[in-house]
Amino acid sequence: MESEGFQRNVLQSLDQDARNGLTPIKLRAKSAKFAKATVKAQMASFKRFGVWADWDHPYLTLDPEYEAAQIEVFGQMVFKRYIYRRRKPVHWSPSSRTALAEAELEYPEVHVSKSMYAIFKLLTTPTKDGLLDEFPKLSLAIWTTTPWTIPANAAVAVNSKLQYAIVEVQSPSPDVTSSSEDGKKRIGSVLKGSKIPFFIVALDLLSTLESKWNVKLAVKKTVFGSDLENCRYAHPINGEECPVVIGGDYITTESGTGLVHTAPGHGQDDYITGLKYNLPIISPVDDEGKFTEEAGIFKGLDVLGDGNAAVIDHLDQLSSIIMVEPYKHKHPYDWRTKKPTTTAQWFASVEGFREAAMDAISQVVWTPSQGVVMGLQIPTRFEFYFASISDLSSPLQRLKNPSLHFNPSQLPVTHLPTRFTSLLGKYIFASLFFLFVSLDFVDVIAKLIMFSFSFSIYRINDGFGENPVKQPFECDD
């Protein structure tokens, strides 16, 4: 089946005039032709290298037989209830408009993010602590390299074993009242104000933060992270009450403030913490990497561009920003387009069949048995992969709707033709009826696809109107 990579290569080979009027079916036809030509060229190269293979029967994922086999396997997974409704984040590429597996990501060390130190106002604390009685204007100081995820904030996580300090800002440097315009550092409204609130930060990060913020921090009291659990703070944008929770070992004193802004819809560590505390999973980002209506005033803004800046500016107007500065670090990039990714999609599970997969691997006769791939012997590599893979790292399908629901009422008739333009559409078509049909029905669908029924569906879709293709659209690899 043609991947987004082939579609993108085809589009890049066409001028603007050729793109005008290019419908999905026409793009697929060109992509299939491009893919087959690429296979032919690669096959010729292998033959010149003396590679032995069954060249008359190549293994091609665009063959109807391959697609039919996928339908059969997917049908079995549905009936064995390996497909479930829990939502989970995976990497999503706005440039390719598809979910990405870990193997499809690159992590260049030259990416520069706008990191942000901000405060969230504390509202309540456990009655035994009485922190707000002693420090009425107390706030949690957080640090993040993804300000655009603040609209999805659901909690602040702390490390139960770390010591945290309630600090007061004293003797700010004269330079702290001015913002840098050269893009290197920007002092926020918090440090410019006449009444600076008390902050909570990790005790071990005190000297680091004094140096970064160019201030003197006086420790008024210390507490353990476990003492902060179940405190409540005001969401910096919508004002809703959110909890302070205990996170995992990912909360350290290597950087930041020791308090982690937690958005379960945008990261694996946050997601796991969210499951533990039953936090809402919010992901107000569409497949183009733009804020949705759920993000309120930020709707339509590019989260990695003007949307990120808009969130920072809005928080500064609300007197929540301590400081903004560039931060160079590794960041996931789409290996196809070399563009940053966001995490905004949710998929399924491998836990149900891990044991069966491991048993099957143990019965395989590998040739050559001592072959090495990526530093591991071939059998060991496959065993290691299936033993270590988790639900969080194995996206099963690529739906724009961020949940796995096989409910016909959620698929308007006007949208069905578009759904069928991907192999995923066939998955859904074969699975919508799983509550009242048998595997025999899925087998019938698989056989229809094997005999090019899928291409007939594309032709039907093409007849619903001329929809020029402006960018590569979604399809399953």
Task: For this entry, give a set of tags.
477 residues, alpha+beta, Isoleucyl-tRNA Synthetase, domain 2, elongated, ATP-binding, EC 6.1.1.5, zinc, aa-tRNA-synth_Ia, ligase
Structure explained in plain terms:
The protein has 477 residues and is an alpha+beta fold. It is built from 16 helices and 18 strands. The protein has helices at residues 4-12, 16-19, 24-48, 64-79, 131-134, 189-192, 206-213, 225-228, 268-277, 306-317, 354-362, 378-388, 416-419, 423-431, 439-450, 453-462, and strands at 90-93, 98-100, 105-106, 111-124, 138-144, 155-158, 163-170, 186-187, 198-202, 216-224, 232-234, 241-246, 260-262, 321-329, 333-334, 342-345, 372-373, 376-377. The strands form 4 sheets. Strands 4, 5, 6, 7, 8, 9, 10, 11, 12, 13 and 14 form an 11-stranded mixed beta sheet that branches. The chain has a 3-stranded antiparallel beta sheet with strand order 2-1-16, with no helix packed on it. A two-stranded antiparallel ribbon has the order 3-15. α1 (4-12) packs across α3 and α4 (64-79) packs across α14. The radius of gyration is 26 Å and the shape is elongated. Mean pLDDT is 76; it is low at 177-182, 392-422 and 459-477.
Supply Rg: 26 Å
CATH homologous superfamily heading of one domain: Valyl/Leucyl/Isoleucyl-tRNA synthetase, editing domain
Q: Give the percentage of residues in beta strands.
A: 15-25%
Q: Tell me, what's the shape?
A: elongated
CATH level-two architecture of one domain:
Alpha-Beta Complex
